[in-house]
Structures are given as C-alpha cells and as structure tokens.
Amino acid sequence: MLAEQHPEAAAELAKAARLPQVLAELLVARGIAQPAAAFAFLNPELALLHDPSLMLGMSAAVVRLEQAIALHQPVLLYGDYDVDGATAVVLLKTAIEMLGGEARFHVPHRLREGYGLQSSVLEEAYAAGVRLVITVDTGMRAFAEAETARKLGLDLIVTDHHLLEAGDAVPHALAILNPNQPGCGYPEKFLCGAAIALKLAQAVLERRDAARTREKTLPSFLKMAAIATIADAVPLRGENRVIATLGLRELRRPAGAGLRALFAAAALDPAAKELTGFDVAFRLAPRINAAGRMDVASEVIELFTTRDAARANELAAKLERLNRERRDTEASALTAIQARLASDVELAADRLLVVDGDGWHRGVIGILASRVVERTAKPAIVVSVEDGVAHGSGRSVDGFPLLDAIESCADLFTRFGGHAFAIGFAMPAENLHELKRRLRLYAEEHLGGREPEHILRIHAELPLDRITPVLAGWLRKLEPLGHGNPEPIFMARRVRLVAAPRIMKERHIRLELAQDAPLLSGSTAGMRGVGWDLAARAAALGLAQGSLVDLAYRIRENDHPDFGGLEVEIAGLRLAEPDGD
Ligand SMILES: [Mn+2]
C-alpha cells in the first residue's frame, strides 16, 4: 500500500530547502512542509528544548525540591520497573545529589507489588524521615495513595506522562507535572516519564547555574532521557526528536561505568559507530527491561549510578543473564502457543485470539501477545494462570480498540487497564471461560467479515538507479528512526533479476537486480538485494533470471569489507504487470 503522496508540496519543499525530492516527500508525509520546520527536523539542537517553566506545576515542584535540599531532607523517588521509570529515577537522583541533596528510591517489584504507588511504602518512608516523595513515570491514578501521603504529612510531587482517567481528575498532590493534565500549556504532549523528570532536573539545575547546566549537565542528562524516549515508544518528533538525537550523539563519548558495561555486554561500540534508534530499542532496552521483567529493577539504577567499573560489569552481566532467561522463557511459551494454534482449529479460526497457559512468566506475556499479533495479524491476548488467578496481556491491530473489547467484560476482572493497542488485566481463573465466550462474540460482531491482513506501508517511490551514497547520507539525517518516525520503505517498479535468486540457508534469498532505464540510454544500474525469509515466496512466484518484479524495500548499508556498500533489503515483492505497450 503506497502512502498518500503530495508531489507538489514535496517539490516545493525540495526546491526551497535544497533537499533531494524523495527526502522532501518523506518529510511532507510526516507533516513537515515548511523549510524552517524541515531544517529543525534535520538539525536538532539544544536550543529547541522547551523552557521547563511552561509546564504546569513546575514552579511549585522546584520550590519544594530546593527546600528539601536546603533542609537536608531525604527525598524519595518512586519509580517504575521499566526503562522509562528506572532512567527517570537515575536522572533525578543524579540532579539532587549534584545539588547537595539526598535521594533515596523505590522501584516496585513487578510481580510482588505491581505497577504504581503503594501506601505501605509511603508509610515506611515517612517513618524513615522522608518528607518529600517524587513519583516518576507513575502516579496519575494514585488518588488513595496521595490521600495517605497527605494524612502522613508527606509532600507529594507526581511526575508522569500517562493519560488521565475519564473525568480529568488528578490526585491531590503538592504539584503534578504531566503535560497531559488539563490546563497544562506545555507544547510537547508526548514526553516519556524520564523526559518529564529531565525537565524538573533541568529547572532546578538551571536555577543554580544556567550556563553550566546548558553546556555540560543537560547534554550529559540527555543520554538517559534518549534511551527512555526511544524505549518507551513515544513519537520521535518535536522535543522528543531533539532529546533522542542529541542524547544518542552524547552516547558516543565515553559514558559512565554502567553504560560502558552495558554497551560491552550488548556488543555495541558507540565510539566506533554511532548508535541508532534500532540499537537502543532492540539491543539496549530489552537488556535494561529484563531486570524488571524477570527480577528487580533496582539493580538497573545501581548500574547507572555506580562509579565502580567492576561492580558495573557484574551488574551488566546479570542483566545479560536475565535477558537470556527472558528470551528462553519467551521462546518456549511461544512454541507452546504455536502448537496450540496449529492443533486447535476452532481457536485458530477466532478473530481475537485468547491463549492461556499455566504459569507462563508474567513478565513476558505482553511480548508474547505482540509476537502472536505479528504472526497472525489478529488481536491477541495471552493469559498466564497461577494460583487460581489469571493475568492477561493483550495487543491489537489497526482499527480494533482492544480496551473497548475488554471494557465490555469489565465485571469479570479484579483490575484492568490499557489503551487501544495494549491492555492488561487480572481476574479469578474461573472467569476465563466466560471471558473467552464473550470476547469471541464481541470480536465476531466487530471484526466479522474483515480478513486479517499484514499491511506493508510504502512511503515513497524510488527507482533503484537513484540510490546513491549521497542520497543515503541525506536519508541518515532522518535518524533516529522509530515510533512516529518510521524507517522509510521505498518502492521500485519493473526491476529485472540479472541472475536467478540465490537461496541462503534454505530460507533467504540474494538477488542481483537492475533497474532498467531503456528510454534514456539503455543503461542499467545494478544493485544487490537480500530477502530474509523470502525463499518460499520467490519459488511461488517462479522467479528466475530475467524476471521483472515490483519491489518494496529498505536501503541498507553493508559494511562487509569485501562486498560492502549500499544494498536493498526486500520487504515485499510481486511480479511486475506485463508491459502494456
Ligand atoms: Mn513510561
């Protein structure tokens, strides 16, 4: 499916901003049509970060935090167990300590405590002398816990990016920092939790020394915020793009002991090769998240704050082990799910898949649901049953808001939440049968007649002979790619196979391609292509030397010493229409 094109707007932007036409097309498709906006998008800089004081509640939060530091009151940072929550704790802890204050932290145990603020932790903190609690990446729904804090005489500052419940009510706290709350005029609504913590850190640090903060502290803080921004899948546009781009750039320089140990464990060397959004999302984030999924996330905070290289290596090795454990757990459950779908015809025919298993690790059921959606193109819920309780996590597809489906069964759950694409719930295991029955009817009604389809979005047309190192250099300026800034998928029509496809490991194909341009000079431009898992598709299409195909592809840079250079990774292909004339 070729995305809607705006050739005139793109041509105008290309001319005004002196950009290659295809890059202008990609920018216009992202809603960036003015030269100034294009320049800002392609050249993010520190000056594009917004003033923290634009955030509602910021001045009250800064005054109280400064007071705590001045009075030597320990501050409790209340985090979350994922990358976003843990890096947010690291940022504020570092800032408070830089200002001479004392910061403690609590990161809930995913399985024992679950997500969100707990009154018992507040009570213990008060007893231990804490008078100020700052939540990060959590707290928007902590109405009862905010009440507990108020009764104890504990000041509470909530910093969170999660959306509010219907009704726009916010917990009663000393300050709430969340650009999504009513009355907040902060221009960037899609910050992750760590970026909001960054804004608070920026505000207090700038009051102490604005110049030093801008030049030294902020750039170094952007590293953590960039990792969280990419890992938390907020759209990489606007201020998020500035944070992600500058943070990734900062990561090239030797960072703290923890980051260095983590890079080594993940076989990344940012000094040699600049990190991409992909590196963060698929190599760093899973390792950091493994701690919270399989064990306790508090060690992640120790990893990022320790100066002791030996301890950092030890902690990074532990994350590595937990991540491997996570992958094995996930793989064996996925095999079980696939076997179930293969043998249970009735289940496989369902439009919304609900698969349950005994004792599947609750830390991975969300990932499992995503995998099932990828493979089946159907919304899917994976349920783990343990001690009579069923925990579920679901993921959806375009056009089927999963939270609505779950809300139609609200009476079955002890708790549930989420949004259109992702949900979670808990309920007594004996309700599982009824849940499946109702969801089957609901999906039949809302998805009936619609065939599940894997949709490939193509962003622009680009004949293979227009792929040059110069163009590849321009396209690199779109990095970091990720949520809200997808990797471009191009289309080339009537591409000729110079040789028969070469099969690799029985599954993949290598192609020698030529984009014929007979009308001009009869010259051809050669290009190598690779197609992962496309051997069966190539055989089905009967591809042979001389075949003409239409390709959907991504541009890849192969750094192999012998056959390095630009090549295309094939995302989809079909036989070209026979020539009409
Ligand atoms: Mn978050």
Report on the architecture of this protein.
This protein has four domains: 1-43; 52-210, inorganic pyrophosphatase (n-terminal core); 344-447, Diaminopimelate Epimerase, Chain A, domain 1; 456-575, Beta Barrel (OB fold (Dihydrolipoamide Acetyltransferase, E2P)), CATH 2.40.50.460. Helix 8 crosses helix 9 and helix 12 (298-305) packs antiparallel against helix 13. The two termini are 25 Å apart. With 581 residues, it is of the alpha/beta class. The radius of gyration is 26 Å and the shape is globular. The chain has a five-stranded parallel sheet, with helices on both faces. Helices cover 43% and strands 18% of the residues. The longest helix is centred in the middle third of the chain and has 39 residues, at 193-231. Bound molecules: manganese (II) ion.
Number of helices: 19
CATH topology of the largest domain: inorganic pyrophosphatase (n-terminal core)
Secondary structure: helix percent = 40-55%
Give the low-pLDDT segments: none
- Strand tally is 17
* Large-scale geometry: globular
Name the average pLDDT: 91
- Widest sheet, order of strands: 2-1-3-4-5
What is the radius of gyration computed over CA atoms, rounded to a whole number of angstroms? Answer: 26 Å
Distinct bound molecules = manganese (II) ion
Give the DSSP E fraction (strand runs of 2 or more residues).
Answer: 15-25%
Largest sheet: 5 strands, parallel
Helical/strand content category: alpha/beta
